[in-house]
Amino acid sequence: MLTHYLTVAPVSSVIFALTIGLTLYVFSNPEWYGKLMLHPYSVYRNRSRWYLILTSGLIHKDWMHLLFNMITFYYFGFGLEQIFVSISGAMGHVLFFLLYVIGLVLSDIPTILQQKNNYNYHSLGASGAISAVLFSFILFEPKMMLGIFMVIPMPAYIFAVLYLVYCMWASKNARDGVNHDAHLFGALTGILFTLVAFPWILRHFIDQF
Description:
Elements: H1 2-8, H2 10-28, H3 33-36, H4 40-45, H5 51-55, H6 63-88, H7 91-114, H8 127-140, E1 145-148, E2 152-155, H9 156-173, H10 180-197, H11 201-207
Antiparallel strand pairs: 1-2
Helix pairs in contact: 1-2, 2-6, 6-7, 6-8, 7-8, 7-10, 8-10, 9-10
């Protein structure tokens, strides 16, 4: 099984293992949170700390945060990488890597700009990049049924609309400590990246209806 995943989806396999491994490490060594979390105040003022955008996407707050993101990534990341490869050959692995990294970076840029003067603000988690992966996948399979909260069945395209509307509302109104902007801009990055990489995907999406 492990050999299969490493063969068909090596990028997803490495991201999956690295994220789980590093998160488990900081669970046992919490002093590393301060060294790896995104801190917009310092990132904005010190370019040498831009690496925090990447490291913050490899660690999570708690078990629930980690499990939710990794379950989502497992179901969509591995499949999306294989879709990319079926279309672009070996270059598909590179495209998937770029989608994930660009999604991670661009999902955090608005947060950095908004929180650049807030010394006490920190953020962590892979949600922005995983939103990019999920929304890219939805462009290929818009009618796929998703199990919302593992229970409620819903077509992917309806979920996508509701997700974007909720993220826009929550980014302005929610006070739950969740970085909803990262979710929103990650999703938008996934859509835009896929449109650029595969210009025909919009016609494919429309033709599914």
